[in-house]
Amino acid sequence: MKQQPTILVTGSRGQLGSELKDLAASYPSFQFLFFSREEFPINNSVIAREIFQKNQPDFFVNCAAYTAVDQAEKEQELAREINGWAPGRLAQLCKEFGTKLIHISTDYVFNGKVRRPLKEDDPVDPVNFYGASKLLGEELVMKNNSDSIIIRTSWVYSFYGKNFVKTMMRLMNEKEQIGVVNDQTGSPTYAADLADCIMRIIASGKWIPGIYHFSNEGVITWFEFAGEIKNLTGSNCIVNPITTEQFPTPAKRPAYSVMDHSKMEKLYGIQARDWKASLKECIGKLKSAG
After folding, report:
1. What values do phi and psi take at 173, rounded to 5?
2. How many CB atoms are closer than 10 A to CB 73?
3. Domain 6-162+189-216+258-273 classified CATH 3.40.50.720?
4. Radius of gyration for the chain, computed over Cα atoms and rounded to the nearest angstrom
5. Quick check: is 212 catalytic?
6. Catalytic pick from 27, 66, 108, 130?
7. Which ranges of the chain have pLDDT less than 70?
8. Between vectors from CA 283 to CA 184 and to CA 213, what angle results, nearest 5°?
9. Long-range contact set of residues 239-244: C-beta below 8 Å, sequence gap at least 24
10. How far is 61 from 198, CA to CA, in rounded Å?
11. Where are the domains of the chain?
12. Alpha helix segments (H runs only) across the chain
């Protein structure tokens, strides 16, 4: 390994990539290389190989993904390519160059029928095409490079990009009342906390390949999530609980996707923050930025 290990990050303008960029200054012993979707289209094998040959990264964090859950039902080929086949090829490339890969996946690989926190080895059964495309990525990553780490996460939000928190803040500002689904249960993930988790794994000096779960602590519905956003912003908007049936979407969502984090805690000593503390921090940043 070089004097200063290199961490290459794709999807640098997304929620997680942007949070990793903010965190980079706290890790001066590493050299960071950030690439946007345009600079490093992960489905372009020629560009990927050129970047690897030029930079010889020690670590590769793949934050690039097709994340439009509903649109994926229409653009199945594109979702499958970016979330499935491309990560598989990148894993092969990482193996060839001796690069440690951290790939990000999703709670949507589960069907939502099991009503207890899900472990990494629980059966997978996606209920939408986005989940199916991400599952293909997981399978190909592990098939092509079993030395990889895959982190499944859920309900991601951030100071950056488009997400539920920012959408709720906007709607609560524009409308007198809104309806939010109250029969889908999960755990939010503040992308800054996920970025911190990734860097703690890399900086730990120990590499334990496999699939891990990470989100903030807490079991809530989207309605409860929206209620806390209302509290923290001081909004007067009325938030009404509605059912999934009352808010139909092109892609089905799992009704329950709470994940068990004990593997991450046991092997890396990483304890996720409570979801309310993280949400408060993020909304504080958003309010400060105006």
Report:
1. -80, -30
2. 16
3. yes
4. 19
5. no
6. 130
7. 1-2
8. 45
9. 239/172, 239/177, 239/178, 239/179, 239/180, 240/177, 240/178, 240/179, 240/180, 241/179, 241/180, 241/181, 241/182, 242/179, 242/180, 242/181, 242/182, 243/181, 243/182, 243/183, 244/181, 244/183, 244/184
10. 8
11. 6-162+189-216+258-273
12. 15-23, 45-55, 76-80, 86-97, 129-144, 164-174, 191-203, 222-233, 262-268, 275-288
Residue 290 has a pLDDT of 78
Q: What is the DSSP letter of 195?
A: H
Question: What is the DSSP code string of 120-176?
Answer: TTSPP--SSHHHHHHHHHHHHHHHH-TT-EEEEE-SEE-SSSS-HHHHHHHHHHH-S
CA 77 to CA 233: how far, in whole Å? 40
Q: In one letter, which amino acid is 213?
A: H
Local structure of residue 273 (DSSP, 8 states): P
Task: Provide the phi-psi class of 17: left if phi over 0, else alpha when psi is between -120 and 50, else beta.
Answer: alpha
Question: To which residue do tokens 């999934």 refer?
Answer: 244
- How far is it, in rounded angstroms, from Cα 145 to Cα 149? 10
Claim: this prediction has a pTM higher than 0.85: yes
- Report d(CA 205, CA 217) in Å as an integer: 25
* Euclidean distance between CA atoms 151 and 198, whole angstroms: 9
Measured in whole angstroms, the distance separating CA 85 from the mean position of its chain's CA atoms is 18
Residue type, 187: S
Which residues make Cβ contacts (< 8 Å) with residue 200, sequence separation at least 6?
268, 270
Residues comprising the chain, all counted: 290
Torsion of CA 155, 160, 165, 171, to 10 degrees: -140
Query: Directed axis angle between helix 275-288 and helix 191-203, to 10°?
Result: 110
Report the Cα–Cα distance between both ends of the chain, in Å, rounded. Answer: 43
Q: What pLDDT score does 1 carry?
A: 44
The pair of structure tokens assigned to 232 is 């923290």
